[in-house]
Specification:
homodimer, 165 residues, alpha+beta, 4-stranded antiparallel sheet, 4 strands, globular
Chain lengths: 165, 165
Amino acid sequence: MKLDAEWVTGFVDGEGCYHVGIAKHPEMRAGVQVLPEFTVVQHERDAQLLHALKAFFGCGVVRRNHGARMAYRVRGLEQLGAHIVPFFERHPLKSQKRLDFDKFRRVVRLMEAGEHLTPEGTARIRAIAAQMNRGRLRESPAPLETGEDEPSEIPCRVSSDPHER
Amino acid sequence: MKLDAEWVTGFVDGEGCYHVGIAKHPEMRAGVQVLPEFTVVQHERDAQLLHALKAFFGCGVVRRNHGARMAYRVRGLEQLGAHIVPFFERHPLKSQKRLDFDKFRRVVRLMEAGEHLTPEGTARIRAIAAQMNRGRLRESPAPLETGEDEPSEIPCRVSSDPHER
Protein backbone atom coordinates (compact mmCIF):
# COMPACT_ATOMS: atom_id res chain seq x y z
CA MET A 1 0.00 0.00 0.00
CA LYS A 2 1.57 3.28 -1.10
CA LEU A 3 0.87 6.33 1.03
CA ASP A 4 0.60 9.95 0.03
CA ALA A 5 2.41 12.52 2.22
CA GLU A 6 -0.77 14.53 2.79
CA TRP A 7 -2.67 11.37 3.75
CA VAL A 8 0.09 10.53 6.25
CA THR A 9 -0.12 14.03 7.74
CA GLY A 10 -3.90 13.79 8.09
CA PHE A 11 -3.72 10.32 9.61
CA VAL A 12 -1.04 11.37 12.10
CA ASP A 13 -3.06 14.50 12.95
CA GLY A 14 -5.70 12.03 14.09
CA GLU A 15 -3.78 9.02 15.33
CA GLY A 16 -0.14 9.91 15.89
CA CYS A 17 1.69 10.59 19.14
CA TYR A 18 4.97 12.34 19.88
CA HIS A 19 6.25 11.43 23.26
CA VAL A 20 9.38 11.99 25.33
CA GLY A 21 9.88 9.40 28.05
CA ILE A 22 12.31 10.10 30.83
CA ALA A 23 13.43 7.06 32.81
CA LYS A 24 15.81 6.84 35.73
CA HIS A 25 19.00 5.17 34.62
CA PRO A 26 21.84 5.28 37.19
CA GLU A 27 24.39 4.11 34.63
CA MET A 28 23.81 7.15 32.43
CA ARG A 29 25.92 10.22 33.17
CA ALA A 30 22.91 12.45 33.82
CA GLY A 31 21.18 9.75 35.89
CA VAL A 32 18.28 9.47 33.47
CA GLN A 33 17.65 8.21 29.99
CA VAL A 34 15.67 10.38 27.57
CA LEU A 35 13.52 8.35 25.20
CA PRO A 36 11.79 10.26 22.43
CA GLU A 37 9.29 8.17 20.53
CA PHE A 38 6.88 8.63 17.65
CA THR A 39 3.95 6.21 17.73
CA VAL A 40 0.81 5.40 15.79
CA VAL A 41 -1.47 2.86 17.46
CA GLN A 42 -4.22 0.99 15.60
CA HIS A 43 -6.42 -2.01 16.12
CA GLU A 44 -4.79 -5.08 14.62
CA ARG A 45 -7.36 -5.08 11.84
CA ASP A 46 -5.46 -2.09 10.43
CA ALA A 47 -1.96 -3.48 10.97
CA GLN A 48 -1.31 -3.13 7.25
CA LEU A 49 -1.55 0.65 7.63
CA LEU A 50 1.17 0.53 10.26
CA HIS A 51 3.40 -1.51 7.96
CA ALA A 52 2.68 1.00 5.19
CA LEU A 53 3.79 3.82 7.52
CA LYS A 54 6.98 1.91 8.32
CA ALA A 55 7.69 1.56 4.60
CA PHE A 56 6.80 5.21 4.01
CA PHE A 57 9.17 6.57 6.66
CA GLY A 58 11.82 3.91 6.03
CA CYS A 59 12.36 3.27 9.72
CA GLY A 60 10.71 2.03 12.90
CA VAL A 61 9.03 -1.20 13.94
CA VAL A 62 5.49 -2.57 14.07
CA ARG A 63 4.79 -4.42 17.30
CA ARG A 64 1.84 -5.57 19.34
CA ASN A 65 1.05 -2.86 21.88
CA HIS A 66 -1.37 -4.65 24.16
CA GLY A 67 -4.48 -6.71 23.55
CA ALA A 68 -5.62 -6.28 19.98
CA ARG A 69 -3.74 -3.00 19.56
CA MET A 70 -0.69 -2.74 17.33
CA ALA A 71 1.81 0.10 17.30
CA TYR A 72 4.10 1.59 14.70
CA ARG A 73 6.94 3.00 16.74
CA VAL A 74 10.09 4.95 15.96
CA ARG A 75 12.69 5.32 18.67
CA GLY A 76 16.33 6.16 18.26
CA LEU A 77 17.77 9.59 17.78
CA GLU A 78 19.19 8.90 14.36
CA GLN A 79 15.91 7.71 12.84
CA LEU A 80 13.85 10.41 14.49
CA GLY A 81 16.29 13.14 13.49
CA ALA A 82 16.77 11.95 9.92
CA HIS A 83 13.29 10.72 8.99
CA ILE A 84 10.46 11.68 11.31
CA VAL A 85 11.31 15.25 12.30
CA PRO A 86 12.19 16.44 8.77
CA PHE A 87 8.98 14.97 7.33
CA PHE A 88 6.73 16.86 9.74
CA GLU A 89 8.79 20.01 9.22
CA ARG A 90 8.00 19.78 5.50
CA HIS A 91 4.37 18.67 6.10
CA PRO A 92 3.09 20.58 9.12
CA LEU A 93 0.30 19.05 11.15
CA LYS A 94 -2.97 20.97 11.13
CA SER A 95 -4.20 19.95 14.57
CA GLN A 96 -3.01 21.22 17.93
CA LYS A 97 -0.79 18.13 17.99
CA ARG A 98 1.56 20.36 16.04
CA LEU A 99 2.46 22.02 19.37
CA ASP A 100 3.59 18.64 20.70
CA PHE A 101 5.58 18.01 17.57
CA ASP A 102 7.34 21.37 17.99
CA LYS A 103 8.42 20.38 21.51
CA PHE A 104 9.38 16.89 20.35
CA ARG A 105 11.55 18.39 17.62
CA ARG A 106 13.27 20.67 20.14
CA VAL A 107 14.07 17.66 22.32
CA VAL A 108 15.44 15.67 19.38
CA ARG A 109 17.62 18.60 18.30
CA LEU A 110 18.88 19.13 21.87
CA MET A 111 19.76 15.45 22.05
CA GLU A 112 21.58 15.66 18.73
CA ALA A 113 23.64 18.41 20.38
CA GLY A 114 24.38 16.04 23.29
CA GLU A 115 22.35 18.02 25.83
CA HIS A 116 20.73 14.88 27.27
CA LEU A 117 24.14 13.80 28.56
CA THR A 118 24.40 16.64 31.07
CA PRO A 119 22.26 17.34 34.14
CA GLU A 120 21.53 20.88 32.87
CA GLY A 121 20.49 19.65 29.45
CA THR A 122 18.37 16.92 30.97
CA ALA A 123 16.61 19.47 33.15
CA ARG A 124 15.83 21.53 30.05
CA ILE A 125 14.52 18.48 28.23
CA ARG A 126 12.46 17.43 31.23
CA ALA A 127 10.85 20.89 31.34
CA ILE A 128 9.92 20.65 27.66
CA ALA A 129 8.61 17.09 28.02
CA ALA A 130 6.42 18.15 30.95
CA GLN A 131 4.61 20.54 28.60
CA MET A 132 3.75 17.82 26.09
CA ASN A 133 0.49 15.90 25.60
CA ARG A 134 -1.29 17.95 28.24
CA GLY A 135 -4.97 17.29 28.09
CA ARG A 136 -4.40 14.98 25.15
CA LEU A 137 -6.09 11.63 24.85
CA ARG A 138 -3.81 9.01 26.27
CA GLU A 139 -2.98 5.40 25.84
CA SER A 140 -0.77 3.67 28.34
CA PRO A 141 2.47 2.76 26.67
CA ALA A 142 3.78 -0.70 26.26
CA PRO A 143 6.60 -1.26 28.77
CA LEU A 144 9.83 0.37 27.74
CA GLU A 145 12.42 -2.07 26.55
CA THR A 146 15.42 -0.05 27.57
CA GLY A 147 14.66 2.05 30.64
CA GLU A 148 14.79 0.78 34.18
CA ASP A 149 11.69 2.68 35.22
CA GLU A 150 8.44 3.49 33.58
CA PRO A 151 8.70 6.82 31.80
CA SER A 152 7.54 9.86 33.71
CA GLU A 153 5.30 10.92 30.85
CA ILE A 154 2.85 8.69 29.07
CA PRO A 155 1.80 8.89 25.46
CA CYS A 156 -1.26 10.54 24.09
CA ARG A 157 -4.08 8.29 23.48
CA VAL A 158 -6.54 6.11 25.34
CA SER A 159 -8.91 4.31 23.06
CA SER A 160 -11.56 2.12 24.55
CA ASP A 161 -12.48 -0.73 22.31
CA PRO A 162 -15.54 -2.56 23.57
CA HIS A 163 -14.16 -5.80 22.19
CA GLU A 164 -11.18 -5.56 24.49
CA ARG A 165 -13.10 -5.06 27.70
CA MET B 1 -7.46 26.80 6.89
CA LYS B 2 -7.45 25.12 3.50
CA LEU B 3 -7.49 21.33 3.43
CA ASP B 4 -6.01 18.94 0.91
CA ALA B 5 -8.17 16.01 -0.24
CA GLU B 6 -5.54 13.45 0.77
CA TRP B 7 -5.16 15.06 4.18
CA VAL B 8 -8.94 14.85 4.63
CA THR B 9 -8.91 11.16 3.67
CA GLY B 10 -6.11 10.42 6.13
CA PHE B 11 -7.78 12.35 8.92
CA VAL B 12 -11.12 10.64 8.33
CA ASP B 13 -9.37 7.26 8.21
CA GLY B 14 -8.35 8.05 11.76
CA GLU B 15 -11.18 10.13 13.15
CA GLY B 16 -14.27 9.82 10.96
CA CYS B 17 -17.41 7.80 11.53
CA TYR B 18 -20.11 6.61 9.15
CA HIS B 19 -23.23 5.67 11.00
CA VAL B 20 -26.78 4.66 10.19
CA GLY B 21 -29.21 5.29 13.03
CA ILE B 22 -32.60 3.60 12.97
CA ALA B 23 -35.20 5.12 15.27
CA LYS B 24 -38.80 4.11 15.83
CA HIS B 25 -41.08 6.71 14.33
CA PRO B 26 -44.77 5.74 14.23
CA GLU B 27 -45.63 8.61 11.93
CA MET B 28 -43.36 7.31 9.18
CA ARG B 29 -44.83 4.84 6.74
CA ALA B 30 -42.32 2.10 7.54
CA GLY B 31 -42.64 2.76 11.30
CA VAL B 32 -38.99 3.79 11.60
CA GLN B 33 -36.80 6.64 10.55
CA VAL B 34 -33.44 5.91 8.96
CA LEU B 35 -30.78 8.47 9.86
CA PRO B 36 -27.46 8.17 8.08
CA GLU B 37 -24.80 10.41 9.49
CA PHE B 38 -21.15 11.23 8.83
CA THR B 39 -19.32 12.54 11.87
CA VAL B 40 -15.87 13.67 12.92
CA VAL B 41 -15.46 14.32 16.65
CA GLN B 42 -12.59 16.31 18.13
CA HIS B 43 -11.69 17.98 21.37
CA GLU B 44 -12.77 21.61 21.28
CA ARG B 45 -9.14 22.70 21.02
CA ASP B 46 -9.30 21.48 17.42
CA ALA B 47 -12.70 22.96 16.58
CA GLN B 48 -11.07 24.93 13.77
CA LEU B 49 -10.34 21.64 11.99
CA LEU B 50 -14.03 20.77 12.13
CA HIS B 51 -14.95 24.14 10.66
CA ALA B 52 -12.33 23.58 7.97
CA LEU B 53 -13.97 20.22 7.14
CA LYS B 54 -17.35 21.92 6.93
CA ALA B 55 -15.93 24.46 4.49
CA PHE B 56 -14.16 21.70 2.56
CA PHE B 57 -17.28 19.58 2.06
CA GLY B 58 -19.60 22.58 1.72
CA CYS B 59 -22.22 21.08 4.01
CA GLY B 60 -22.92 19.94 7.56
CA VAL B 61 -22.76 21.61 10.96
CA VAL B 62 -20.25 21.94 13.78
CA ARG B 63 -21.85 21.46 17.19
CA ARG B 64 -20.85 20.65 20.72
CA ASN B 65 -21.11 16.88 21.16
CA HIS B 66 -20.75 16.52 24.91
CA GLY B 67 -18.32 17.92 27.43
CA ALA B 68 -15.32 19.37 25.68
CA ARG B 69 -15.97 17.36 22.51
CA MET B 70 -17.13 19.01 19.31
CA ALA B 71 -18.57 17.24 16.28
CA TYR B 72 -18.67 17.99 12.58
CA ARG B 73 -21.81 16.25 11.43
CA VAL B 74 -23.54 15.77 8.10
CA ARG B 75 -27.08 14.44 8.09
CA GLY B 76 -29.62 14.70 5.34
CA LEU B 77 -29.82 12.52 2.30
CA GLU B 78 -29.20 15.30 -0.17
CA GLN B 79 -25.95 16.47 1.40
CA LEU B 80 -24.66 12.96 2.03
CA GLY B 81 -25.54 11.82 -1.49
CA ALA B 82 -24.17 14.90 -3.24
CA HIS B 83 -21.08 15.73 -1.17
CA ILE B 84 -19.90 13.09 1.27
CA VAL B 85 -20.43 9.83 -0.63
CA PRO B 86 -18.93 11.08 -3.93
CA PHE B 87 -15.84 12.44 -2.19
CA PHE B 88 -15.01 9.11 -0.55
CA GLU B 89 -15.74 7.30 -3.80
CA ARG B 90 -13.07 9.44 -5.46
CA HIS B 91 -10.71 9.28 -2.47
CA PRO B 92 -10.99 5.76 -1.00
CA LEU B 93 -10.16 5.30 2.65
CA LYS B 94 -7.13 3.13 3.36
CA SER B 95 -8.25 1.76 6.73
CA GLN B 96 -10.84 -0.94 7.37
CA LYS B 97 -13.29 1.93 7.94
CA ARG B 98 -13.65 1.72 4.17
CA LEU B 99 -15.90 -1.32 4.73
CA ASP B 100 -18.22 0.84 6.84
CA PHE B 101 -18.21 3.52 4.19
CA ASP B 102 -19.19 0.95 1.56
CA LYS B 103 -22.22 -0.05 3.64
CA PHE B 104 -23.04 3.57 4.39
CA ARG B 105 -22.97 4.36 0.69
CA ARG B 106 -25.30 1.44 -0.05
CA VAL B 107 -27.77 2.76 2.54
CA VAL B 108 -27.63 6.28 1.13
CA ARG B 109 -28.20 4.99 -2.41
CA LEU B 110 -31.10 2.77 -1.25
CA MET B 111 -32.64 5.79 0.47
CA GLU B 112 -32.23 7.87 -2.68
CA ALA B 113 -34.26 5.14 -4.38
CA GLY B 114 -36.95 5.51 -1.70
CA GLU B 115 -36.33 2.11 -0.14
CA HIS B 116 -36.46 3.46 3.41
CA LEU B 117 -40.14 4.27 2.90
CA THR B 118 -41.18 0.62 2.67
CA PRO B 119 -41.02 -2.10 5.32
CA GLU B 120 -39.03 -4.35 2.95
CA GLY B 121 -36.51 -1.63 2.18
CA THR B 122 -36.21 -0.73 5.83
CA ALA B 123 -35.48 -4.35 6.69
CA ARG B 124 -32.73 -4.38 4.07
CA ILE B 125 -31.27 -1.17 5.43
CA ARG B 126 -31.47 -2.44 8.98
CA ALA B 127 -29.57 -5.57 7.98
CA ILE B 128 -26.81 -3.47 6.40
CA ALA B 129 -26.67 -1.09 9.37
CA ALA B 130 -26.30 -4.03 11.77
CA GLN B 131 -23.06 -4.96 9.98
CA MET B 132 -21.51 -1.52 10.48
CA ASN B 133 -18.99 -0.36 13.08
CA ARG B 134 -18.61 -3.85 14.49
CA GLY B 135 -15.72 -3.93 16.85
CA ARG B 136 -15.00 -0.31 16.05
CA LEU B 137 -14.18 2.20 18.72
CA ARG B 138 -17.34 3.92 19.79
CA GLU B 139 -18.49 7.21 21.14
CA SER B 140 -22.02 7.60 22.40
CA PRO B 141 -23.83 9.95 20.07
CA ALA B 142 -25.33 13.21 21.06
CA PRO B 143 -29.13 12.80 21.34
CA LEU B 144 -30.87 12.70 17.99
CA GLU B 145 -32.77 15.84 17.20
CA THR B 146 -35.38 14.20 15.04
CA GLY B 147 -36.04 10.63 16.13
CA GLU B 148 -38.35 9.62 18.92
CA ASP B 149 -36.06 6.91 20.17
CA GLU B 150 -32.34 6.56 20.53
CA PRO B 151 -30.86 4.98 17.42
CA SER B 152 -30.38 1.25 17.50
CA GLU B 153 -26.75 1.57 16.43
CA ILE B 154 -24.24 3.88 18.01
CA PRO B 155 -21.32 5.59 16.29
CA CYS B 156 -17.79 4.48 16.24
CA ARG B 157 -15.61 6.04 18.76
CA VAL B 158 -15.08 6.22 22.49
CA SER B 159 -12.28 8.50 23.44
CA SER B 160 -11.38 8.88 27.08
CA ASP B 161 -10.00 12.28 27.83
CA PRO B 162 -8.62 12.44 31.37
CA HIS B 163 -9.64 16.10 31.56
CA GLU B 164 -13.27 15.16 31.14
CA ARG B 165 -13.44 12.56 33.88
